[in-house]
Each structure stands twice: as C-alpha cells, then as structure tokens.
Design goal:
The complex is a heterodimer of chains A (99) and B (492). Chain A is mostly helical. Chain A has a single domain (4-93), classed as Helix Hairpins (Orthogonal Bundle), CATH 1.10.287.3510. Chain A has 3 helices and no strands. The relative contact order of chain A is 0.13. Chain B has a two-stranded antiparallel ribbon with strand order 1-2. In chain B, a hairpin with a 4-residue loop joins strand 1 (67-69) and strand 2 (74-76). The longest helix of chain B has 32 residues, at 154-185. Classes of the chains: A mainly alpha (99), B mainly alpha (492).
Amino acid sequence: MIPAEHFYYIGAALFSIGLAIVLTKRNAIMILMGVELMLNASNINFLAYNKAGSLDGQFFALFVIVVAAAEASVALAIVLKVYKHFKTINLDKIADIKD
Amino acid sequence: MESLSDKIASNIISLSRFIPELVLVGGVLVLILLDLFKKKKLLLPFALTIIIFCIWQLLRQWGLELQLLFGGFLKLDQAAVAWRVLLCLATFVSLLISIRSTDLRLKGEFYTLTFGILIGGHLLIMSSHLLILYLALEIMSISAYALTLFAFNKAGSEAAIKYLIFGAVSSAIMLYGISWIYTLTGSLFFMEPEFTDSLLNAPFLSFVIGICLVLVGILFKAGAVPFHVWSPDVYTASPTPIVALFSTVPKLAAIAFLLKWLLIIHLFGLGPVDWIMLLSAISMASILFGNFSALRQRNVKRMMAYSSIAHTGFLIIPIVPLSEQATKGFFFYSIVYVLMNLATFMIIHFFERKENIVGIKDYAGTMKTHPLLSVLLVVLMISLTGIPPTAGFTAKLLIFTSLWESYSSTANPWLLALFTFGLINTVVALFFYLKVPFYMTFKPGSSKAGAKRSNTYCFENYFAGLMVLALLILFFKPDWLLDVINKINFAF
C-alpha cells in the first residue's frame, strides 16, 4: 500500500506547478488552468488524509470541485468580456486604468 | 452514535436559528422571479424590505446564549448577531446609494449578487468549520467578481479580470493551507479544543506554512497590504454603490473573522510563532502604504480605495491586543467606519452622476453650487481623518487607548511601535483627506458648474445628513452606543 506521504508530495508538486504557471504565463486562460491545478493539489491532500476511513476530507473535495466549476464559469464570462473590449487576453496588454 | 432522528431534530432547531439567512436566500429567489417577470420597478423596494425583515429577525436573536448550529458547522453568539446586523445595515445603505443610478437599480442580477455578498458575510461571521470558511469566502468573491463588471465598460472589465485572477489565486492558496491544517489536525472544526491541542503538537514548519496560507485568503478579502493590489483598480472602475458595498461588507466580515482566527492560532500564547508581531507589521504596512499612496491620487474613488486600505490597517489595530475591551473598540470603530464610508460614497456618487465629477480638482466651487452636500463631505473627511468633533476621533481614541493598555500590561515592543506609528499616520492622512474640502472651498469653480443651484430635496441630503448627524452625536454621546456594545458578550 502506498503511504499517504507520497500523495502529499504529489499534492505539493501539483501546487507548485500551478503556482509557477500562474506566475509565468501571461494568457488569462492559462492562469485559470494554473489555478485549477492548485485547487486539485488541495483535493489530493484532502483525499490522501482520508484513506483510513473518515469522510470529512472527501466531502470537502466534493465542495471544492463544485465551487471551482462555479468560479470557472464566472471567470470565463469575464475573460469573454475582456476579449470583447481589448481584443486580447494577454494580461500584460490589459493595463488601461491609470491613476 | 446518535440516531438519525436526533440529528434531524437538532437540524430543525438549528434551522429556526438560521431564519435571517433563510430570509435572504428566499429573497434572492423572489428577486430572480421579479426580474424574470419584468417587474423591474419593484426590485429595489422589495430588496430593501427583505433586508429590514432580516434585521428584524436578527434583533429577535439579540441576547441569545452561545449555541452551535448544524452539528457545529456554525457558531451563533451575541457578537455574531451584532456583526450581522451591522453587515445588513451596510448593505441597506449601499442599495440606497444605487437609487440614483437607474441602470444599476433596474438590473435584477445586481440584487442577487449583492445578497450573495451579504450571505457570504453572514456565514463568514458565524463559521466554525473550515469548509464554511472556504465556502463563505468563495460566495463573497464570486459575487464580487461579477459585480465589478457592472459598469459594462472597458475599465470595468479590466478591473474585473485583475480582481478575478488575484482572487482566484489567493483562494486557491488559502484552500491549500486549509488542506495542510486538516492533515495536521485531522479536524475541520476549528473552534474545538482538540483542534487547538493538535495544532500545539504540530511540527513547527508545517504549522507556520498552513496558518500563513490561510491568512493570505483572509487578508486578501480584507484588502490589507500586501494583498491589496486589486482594490485601487476595482474601486476606480466599479459603479459607486458597488464600491461602497465592497469597502464595507466583505472587509468587515473578513477582519471580524481574522479576530476569531487570531484567537485560535495564538494558542493561548503557547504557540511557536508571535502572530501579534506579524499582524502589527501588516497593520503598519497597510496604514503606511494606504496613506502615502493616497497623497498623490487625482481620482476621488481611487483616493478612497487607498483610504480604505489605510482603514484596514486601523481596523487590524484593535484585534492585535486580543482583549475584550479592544474588541469592543473594534466594533465601535467598524460602526463608525461604515457610517462615514457609506455617507462619503453616497455624496461622491451624487456628484459623479449629477455633475459628472470624478477628479479631486473637479470639486472646485461645489461649495457654492451644492452648499449642504459640500459641508457634509467636509465633515465626513474630518471624520475619516479622525479629528474632533466627529466620531472618527472617538473611534480612534478608543482603539488607541485599548492598544496602550495592552502595551502597559504586556510590554510588547511591537504594540508600542504600532501605537506611535498609527498616531503619526493620522497626521499624514490629514493632507489627502482635506484636499477635497480645499478644492471645494477655496478654488473658484468653472462657469458651467455654477449655472444652476442644487435641488434641496434630493434624497442624498437626508440620508447623508442623517449619517453625518449620527457621527456628530457619537462624538458627543459615545456612551449611547457604547452602552449597547458593552452589553454584547464578545466571547473571551
């Protein structure tokens, strides 16, 4: 049986990859994909802890999946609006508000 | 193992304590229906009625003993009731501000999303389970992303995507922190003594990482430095009623939760990390950054964004000493903050809609054209700075007194630093807040602004006037409010 620590390592790796994508990519959709990876990293942690029997983490993971879907739908709607106004979703080019 | 019927019975009892939130949720459904059947004129009166009804239901819970709802997911105490009444009132006034913007007030989604933020705030105040913490923050965030777009222009979409990306990343970071804490403690009920016990036994590094990651999410919602980057753009580009809502409801809910969270992670002072030091530093950074950035702003709403970052710093001051007296000062400061911020945004919205004024310089000469509102705005700016004779001064006096008392008893140098730093920065705040009254009074206005005199019977005169009156009364008679606050048990 694979010990739980291995899953924590996978979770940490996934989280780091997600954060790296968020920090380096300039495309809004790519950043949202990075965020999804970060969310799933926590899901793996929740599930790995619950291998023994308790169910709290499993339910938490279910809620996270639902919330992530809701967030993604709002996010994509906003990205569409941005594309309509700016004709690009490169975040470096979206900088109109000046003080 | 309790039987299923026991569980159902206890859930039904919990539901009867959950009526204020049920009222809000039911109200959202009816609002959607009203929007669907094109009864657009009814939306605003109905939304206001729901909030009044919700406040009435909350007042019926006043003085209730502490109890756990839904098997410990929510914790209902007197402080939670008081906070929720404050959040309801703030939302009520934000909706009142929207009377002047017809485009906003006739959109059904505006109310749905506003109520979403309010419900999220209620849940966050009551939460005693990490899942509720996450869900409440997400309800508030997702509604807020959509609300940011409601100007439906280029700037609005830019602000929305910036807010969205910072918000999504910070909530993902917070969720990862929650998963660490869960694996450390094996429990999601963070109010239980077992949770504290297992945190005490947790390895140092994992404990610090987990707690800090959760703090990121909370501080992001509160808009504290260094997680404030979204707020200037969002405040500039969103419609003013929505900005008024953002500057009060999510911020106060997050800081009220931060107090609860600090009590837990403080571990009765036995923990390995001095969180008081960290939060003092964050508070000082917020005050410093907010005040000095506000100095060079030209747009009033952007200036108010930095001002609210500075006020976040001031709101963190009374939670740092971790004493009941300070918590009462914190609640008093929150009430005063809500009053002055909402009244300011109401007047800013009036000038923005009526005279198309957005820049600070454009306020030149308004003292002649709109004397009453200008005088009210001057009083509000004095109150935001914290000078007598306004309640802004009383509130600052209360929080600094409790901070000084805490320093006298603990001799923590960080508290002294925070104390002196906060006092000095109040002087800095004077320079940008009084810029608006300066332009209003001493600069001659352009000829077109002076063409017509203002209508004395606009509703802003009355509501903003009432709120300013409240601020003045609270300076001369703070006892009236303090007596009420002192009766609330802030659970220490």
